[in-house]
## 1
Amino acid sequence: MAKLAIIGGTGLTRLDELKVERREMVKTPFGAPSCPLVFGTVNDVPIVFLSRHGNRQSIPAHMVNYCANIWALHSVGVERVIAVGVVGAIDDECKVGNIVVPDQIIDYTVGRNSSFEGNDFEGVSYTDFSYPYNDALRQSIIKAGERASVSIIDHGTYGASSGPRLETVAEIHRMERDGCSIVGMSGMPEASLARELSLDYACCAVVVNPAAGKGDGPIDIEQWKSATVSGMASAQSLLQETLASI
Ligand code: HPA
């Protein structure tokens, strides 16, 4: 049984090196996950792959059923999750093409179903989330990045915004004052749901644009798309190297 899952974000609907064994649409008490889970191996390492935005990338970040996705992975025995997503850069240290492995997160999302709690009558339990990302998994990714010659930034605070619209300059200034180094739309509640089910969770955030007000003029969506293609190629190398070591 595979214990490790990769959640692919925008631009990552499949892993080139994944030898697919089977696909399974898992039912959950929270509805359907974004698509069938794909079971297989990468260099003989068993993994489960899930495309967060669906196989056709038709589910935007604010419509993703995060509860169903995380529940489905947990229900098939997954214990560790590496989540990949695209982000905008707030901190000057983060450049387009870098992959940030954040160590903190701030949740600015609204209106998302963000907890498994409240679905039974046994009382609420509280989950520690002081350190949202699993450090052992983070370090495996960071070390793999060195070996794969991928430009990794080994720290940072992920600002999770609701989307689907991009932020205003004032919103990015606020996030910067709060200490965010990157901004993306899918970081929460995925990370906290994983914690509620005691899954080790780490994020590879691929920088595809300077955030609002951080570049020259408005955000260039064409540039974003091409940066996503090249960024996901780097993410694939990083994942392959990471899987070889864990
Ligand atoms: N803002 C929010 N989400 C994003 C961005 C951004 O600038 N870039 C990629 N995902």
## 2
Amino acid sequence: MKYRAILLFGAPGAGKGTQGKILGQIPNFVHFSCGDAFRNLRVDSPLGRVFVEYASDGRLVPDEPTIELWKRSIEGLTATGRFNPEADTLLLDGIPRNPRQAEIMRDLIDVKAIFNLFCPVLDKLVVRLQRRALKENRLDDANIETIRSRLETYKRETRAVLECFPDTLIHQIDSTQEPMFVLLDILKVIAQIPKPAVSDGGTVYLPTTTPR
Ligand code: ADP
């Protein structure tokens, strides 16, 4: 069985994480950030060490351990009841991140939509990333060289992921808008996606008083 998935796509700083966190609050949607999964590893674990080595100069972690981490994380979310593959949709943020990862994941995910959070001026992203470095203590946002290198990695390896999927799935979203308007554009599309055959219908809130 393939996992139902929506891909949040875009350059570093485009706002995938911001939108993923909000959308992940909607019943039946589960946000998975690959960067967060790496950051949650202990830095003295074998994969934690690999992550620090690659991320600190803006490179992608090798594909096999990345996909393994993703699989294990989703299995963990399933085992603990936070993700129900029958009824829920994964919001994938930061994975797949190159055409090879897209190829490996082809048999594992059923992609319902891809949101390309585009930014016509990459320099705007640099400013956002520098602001985030101060707020979130991120080693890879901390210096301008690393930021430039991550944007280069995006242009060289990640952008081509869009070519692995049919155009009909790809929705262009202007990421320079305020977050609320980015969200609005995404929600307009998500609301049109047919629900899975099996759905728990989300949370049911019973009224405390009888409506009149
Ligand atoms: P951003 O969205 O700002 O680029 P992320 O938090 O998504 O930041 O990723 C931080 C770092 O984690 C990346 O620069 C990379 O080293 C590593 N990483 C995250 N996702 C992947 C992935 N799918 N494949 C390989 N490396 C990844």
